[in-house]
Every structure is written in structure tokens, then in C-alpha cells.
From TrEMBL:
<comment type="function">
    <text>Exhibits a very high intrinsic GTPase hydrolysis rate. Involved in the addition of a carboxymethylaminomethyl (cmnm) group at the wobble position (U34) of certain tRNAs, forming tRNA-cmnm(5)s(2)U34.</text>
</comment>
<dbReference type="GO" id="GO:0046872">
    <property type="term" value="F:metal ion binding"/>
</dbReference>
<dbReference type="InterPro" id="IPR027417">
    <property type="entry name" value="P-loop_NTPase"/>
</dbReference>
<feature type="binding site">
    <location>
        <position position="83"/>
    </location>
    <ligand>
        <name>(6S)-5-formyl-5,6,7,8-tetrahydrofolate</name>
    </ligand>
</feature>
<dbReference type="InterPro" id="IPR004520">
    <property type="entry name" value="GTPase_MnmE"/>
</dbReference>
<feature type="binding site">
    <location>
        <position position="232"/>
    </location>
    <ligand>
        <name>Mg(2+)</name>
    </ligand>
</feature>
<dbReference type="GO" id="GO:0005525">
    <property type="term" value="F:GTP binding"/>
</dbReference>
<dbReference type="GO" id="GO:0030488">
    <property type="term" value="P:tRNA methylation"/>
</dbReference>
<dbReference type="InterPro" id="IPR006073">
    <property type="entry name" value="GTP-bd"/>
</dbReference>
<keyword id="KW-0479">Metal-binding</keyword>
<dbReference type="Pfam" id="PF10396">
    <property type="entry name" value="TrmE_N"/>
</dbReference>
<dbReference type="GO" id="GO:0003924">
    <property type="term" value="F:GTPase activity"/>
</dbReference>
<feature type="binding site">
    <location>
        <position position="249"/>
    </location>
    <ligand>
        <name>K(+)</name>
    </ligand>
</feature>
<feature type="domain" description="TrmE-type G">
    <location>
        <begin position="218"/>
        <end position="372"/>
    </location>
</feature>
<protein>
    <recommendedName>
        <fullName>tRNA modification GTPase MnmE</fullName>
        <ecNumber>3.6.-.-</ecNumber>
    </recommendedName>
</protein>
<feature type="binding site">
    <location>
        <position position="252"/>
    </location>
    <ligand>
        <name>K(+)</name>
    </ligand>
</feature>
<feature type="binding site">
    <location>
        <begin position="228"/>
        <end position="233"/>
    </location>
    <ligand>
        <name>GTP</name>
    </ligand>
</feature>
Amino acid sequence: MIDDGIIAAIASGYVESAIGIIRVSGKNSIELLKKIFYPKKNTFEPYKIYHGFLKDSNQKIVDEVLVSVFKSPHSYTGEDSFEINCHGGLLIMQNVLDLVLKNGARLALPGEFTKRAFLNDKIDLLQANAIVNLIKAKTQKALDIAFGQLLKKNTTIIEELREKIIFLMAENEVLIDHPEEDLSDVDLNKRLLILNEITKLIQKLLKFSEKGKYFFEGVNVAIIGKPNVGKSSLLNELTGHNRAIVTDIPGTTTDIVSETLNLNGIPIKILDTAGIRKHSNKIEYLGIKKSHEAIDEADIIIAVFDSSRILDKNDEDILNIIKNKKNVLIVLNKSDLKRKLLLPLNIDPIEISCTKKTGINTLKSRLYNMLIEDYNESEVVSLNTSQIIALKSALKHAKKIKKAYIDSLDPALISIDLQQLADYIEQIIGKIENEDILDNVFKNFCVGK
């Protein structure tokens, strides 16, 4: 699977800047450098920066540059590599890259440098995900979590999982090797106890990966309610500026209005939806249709009611929409007026007044607490889709093994299932034999990384 050919890319991005960086890596990359780079000293020592000129085959100067050299295995990719710091003009960077490509390199694919780092055992897949998140982080909290994952500060759950599975595998091998003698001091109850612990750890890892998704991918929050209850006013108060048009005319919002809020490190995309009621025209019908779509896609729903008016049919429709939804916050707006609205007893509403600007911080606090329930920053991880699928498969497999123990199946058969369980957990860190799956892991990286 390892391609050690020379790859190159503009690592600083194809944008005009003061300095541009062209990254090159692969077997014989230092020999390539000697063909095009003319410093005062042509013997390259690692971890030093050399000043000189890049020249083409006709000895024409392409640029005056600084070059840093890295020798295998002590480089980002684990291979011989170098980086050219040139002037940051678009044409200069392209000329430098073309010069490298003409002398034996090929253009790197997105994420190929990091893929080589993984294949050369410089990083595991958890750290690869962390690198993506470092680049894409939108908040300081997301950046801190990504650094923790890169430095392997939050992989204790996975290590604990591996240890417990290895223990069961080793104990099962004793039963296979000595079928006539009961040399194991582990009884059925202890095996089942360990499997229960494995199941809980997998569930915990899935839960914390969901928290990681919030920090790195953000959360969709839909504000819903009948017309003229203050949805647009609430959007403006949450975001701190007048993003949505606010009038006394019901049905002003006919399309989804969105704005982003940084809520204690979590990027929140707030959607102000059209008021839900029996539509009066086609435009309003389309707006209400989009509101229902936003409700289905939202991670959290904020249902807004006018506390100064009695409950009506439109309010009841809203309550019916949210009754089977998991993450819902009920908000009573216009709390500065006399309250006339009566809600079912099992509802714990948040009273606010957009006019008086009260209760907004309480709403933000409730929203944040709903997102980070049972949250532990040191254990939050970011997993890609294939890793989450592997975890869910591991969860099902653990239950299958538990049944096999209870049914007293042959240890040789249980051994196969234990190995499969171990393989699923290994996929989280990096045991992937399918090249297509591996390519898919790194496709979301930018070129040059």
C-alpha cells in the first residue's frame, strides 16, 4: 500500500501571500532538491534551513528561497522531505511547483502527506482526524480538543477497551489449548462482567464522539412557533444583532433565516423558521414546508409561544409536532406582559422577553447544558463515519459474544468473534486493509496536508 514516490504540493494554499510553502516528500526527494537548488553548501543536514536559488535546466533563476530539510524517519511523513519557502506570489509559487514536478515529483492528492504519515506509523487515525479538526476548527474550544486528540490525551477509553478484549482473547486461548483441563480462573460471571464493561465503554465512546461532532461540525438549532410569537426577535437577541426582519405583521418570515453563534466553544447554526399555521397563500405554504424540513434536520428545537395569549389551535399543532422530539426547549416570550397561556403540567418552560431583553442568558445556559450533558472534555473524540460504523458493529458483536458465552459455545468459535471485535476496535486507531476505505478517510484534507 505504501507509495514512496516523490509528491509535491503548495502547502500554504494557492492564495497570494508574503511567503509561499511548497512541500515535497518521498524516497530520493533530497536528490531531486540537489538538481534544482543552489545554496552555498550542497550537503544537506536535517533540521537546518538553507538559503539559495532555485534554477531550471537552463540555469535561469526561478526564485530566491529558504529550504528546510527533513530526513527519514524524523519527518512529518516519516520519509525524506523538504519544504521550499519562496515568495508568495501566485505565479512564483506555481513556477516553483512546476520546477519540482518537472524534476521527478508528481502532484500530491488531498491528504496524501498525512496518509503517508499514517502508513509510516507516525500517527494513527485518531490523530489524523485531529489534524483535520485543527485546520477546520471554528472555536478555541474545538482547537483545544483537537490538540488534545493529536497529543493522544483523550484515548484512554480506547486503550481500556483493547486491554479488556485482549484479556478475554488470552483467557479464551487457554480454554482452546487445554480443553481437558480448566486452567482458567475466570468464570462465566466474570466474562459477562467484562463484556458488560466493554459494551459500556463502546457506548461511552459513541456518546463522546457525538459531543465531538458538536464542537467540530456545529449544531443546528431550529426556532419554531406560530406567526408573531417573537421567533425573529429571539434570533436577533441570541446572535446580538438584527439579522432577521421584525414587524407586528404575522407571517413576515417566509423563508429560513440562519445565523451562527459561538456558544461557549460550540458553533451553533440558528434557524429562524416561518410561522407554522394554516397557510393563506402559496408563498407562505412553501415557507411552512421548509420549516417542517428544518425541524426534521435540527439537533435541538426551540419552540416559542406567546405567553400573553391563550393557547389556540396553532399552539396545539406546535405541541403535537414536538411531543415525540428528544431535544426540545420550550420558550415563553413576552413574559413582561400579563400571562394568559397555560401549558401542560409536564412542560418546564423558559420565560423570556425579547422586548425587555430578559431570560436570554438563561435560555443560552439551558441550550448549552443540553448539548454538553455528561460531557468530559478530556474524553471527547472526533471520529469519521467509517470509525463510527465500526464502533456500532463492535457494539452488536459484543452482544453476540455475550450470548455465545451464555450458550456455552465452543471456545474456538468464540475466538473468531473475539478477534472480529478486536478488529473493529483496531479500525478506530488504524487497522484498515482496504485501500478505498483508507483513501476515503483522507479525502477531506486539503492539498498539501
